[in-house]
């Protein structure tokens, strides 16, 4: 009887998420590692925010497992695509920030008012950036194996641009809106209405992009052979 082996991408996902997860677990348990200010990080709202981000971190591992496995190709698209879309919006800006900060040596730089030590920022952002790379590899491989040949280069570029743009706008607007509404020590600045408009705009852009992708995939699949349509393709997002 053969043993099932973990995909190298899943192993990589576990490795790169571990530093972030351990730090969050420490804070949830009441630890103060890496925290400079005594009044920072306390309260139920901050505990809930740490719990939510830890859950998202663990969800990424599950998502990579689903995307990199053979069974993942049989999952409905409405299970695979939304979490990948949210992760794209949250992690892509982190990759850009880390890419800019590393050559300048500012990844661990903090000011006198920072509530956290510099190594915390380095740990968190490096972990998140590595997670983004692993997820991107898994997601691209999944899309190419599942829907290869259905997009032209032009339409594929437009879909990717819409996907990334809408996810960044919606995800970070939602995150800033949560920080604005909740009584936490992290204030993004600006009125909540601005973030609400950004969230709605990102969602609308995403829906339009998915409708374009849905039409493109449906046309391509039906043109090739209706009997070979993928039961998990976006054209069936609204079905069981």
Give a description of the structure.
Residues 221-230 have a biased composition (Basic and acidic residues). Keywords: Membrane, Transmembrane, Transmembrane helix. The longest helix is centred in the last third of the chain and has 33 residues, at 192-224. The protein is globular and about 60 Å long. It has 240 residues and is mostly helical. The protein is 69% helix and 0% strand. Helix 1 (8-28) runs antiparallel to helix 2 (44-68).
List the helices and strands and how they pair.
Blueprint: H1 8-28, H2 44-68, H3 77-104, H4 118-147, H5 153-181, H6 192-224
Transmembrane segments: 45-67, 79-102, 122-142, 154-175, 195-213
Biased composition (Basic and acidic residues): 221-230
Keywords: Membrane, Transmembrane, Transmembrane helix
Percentage of residues in DSSP E strands: under 5%
User: What is the H/E order?
Assistant: HHHHHH
N- to C-terminal separation? 34 Å
Radius of gyration: 20 Å
The shape, in one word, is: globular
User: Roughly what percent helix?
Assistant: 55-70%
* Category from helices, strands and their pairing: mainly alpha
Which ranges are low-confidence, i.e. pLDDT below 50, for 5 or more consecutive residues? 224-229, 233-240
Most strands sheet: none
DSSP E strands, number: 0
What is the overall pLDDT average? 80
